[in-house]
Amino acid sequence: MSGEPTLEAILLAQIEHHATEVFYNLDPVRYPSAFVAKLPGCVKTALCWRAAPSGNADFTAYAAVLGNFPSILDMWRDKGCRAESFFPAHDPVMDEYGHGERPIDAVFVGGYSRHHRARARTLEQVARLAGGRNIVLCLDASRLTRLAESAIGRLLPLRQHRRPEAVAKIAQPPVFGRDLYDLLGSAKIVLNGAIDMSGSDRGNMRCFEAMGCGALLVSDAGRYPGGMDSETIVTYAGGSDCLAQIETSLNNWTEIKAKAERGRAAVRDLYSKQQQWALFRSLVSRL
Questions:
Q1: Taking a C-beta distance cutoff of 8 angstroms, is the pair 239, 122 a contact?
Q2: Of 18, 158, 161, 209, which is the most exposed, with the fewest CB atoms less than 10 Å away?
Q3: What's the longest Cα–Cα distance across the chain?
Q4: Which of 186, 179, 178 minimizes the C-alpha distance to 134?
Q5: Which among 88, 69, 76 has a CA at the least distance from the CA of 28?
Q6: Helices (H) and strands (E) in the chain, counts
Q7: DSSP string, 10-45
Q8: Are residues 60 and 108 in the same domain?
Q9: pLDDT digits (tens, 9 = 90+) for 100-122
């Protein structure tokens, strides 16, 4: 392409060169309806995934907004979008992990920011178990949190954005990809906590990853998708209940390990790549 084309122009050229018929977008906030209007004629169907509120973003030009949180799908319908239920899939690579010893008692991997107030309160209590348990927190701290904890930030009125001492003391950087799978496969328990904006809906990606790597998912109570129930996961009602559930699970690990194995089988059977692809093709054919 001549000159200095924009990233959007490059993407549109790639789509046209590929003769793409189905455009499935995981970042519709960056590429909303205005972008869909520019898609080349080869594109017969445009879909997007969005499982979170997005302010005034306009996705009405997409044939459907996909997601796995019923309340958020209803929100998109109220905004004039067609919304369809769709789910993450079990990554077959996860089958390679979690078949040996699990030296980590409990691990949490995820974001830590002002959008995670309930999660932050629970993590603070769990971090205090580190004196007697092997607790690992891999936190993707927000820019504001990193600033607040810096030497300069400690001179500024940012105290409310700093992580509690118990959390900051054991916090490690976030991990991704196979490093994440290796970590989850080394843990007995994977702790999960929904972000505040999800309401009562549950089933974020960490649930699928934790169960897929054979760890016991300990997550906050709410409305979970099929296969995530009392036979396969443990739920808690609040921070103190979370601690109780962790201790009970670790003290009865032989029995609880069987629950984790049932969870692994459920995710593998109910959310396979083959089933996800079949559902996706069915959705496209109906749009």
A1: yes
A2: 18
A3: 66
A4: 186
A5: 76
A6: 11, 10
A7: HHHHHHHHHT-SEEEES-TTTS-HHHHTT--TT--E
A8: no
A9: 999 999 999 988 766 667 778 88
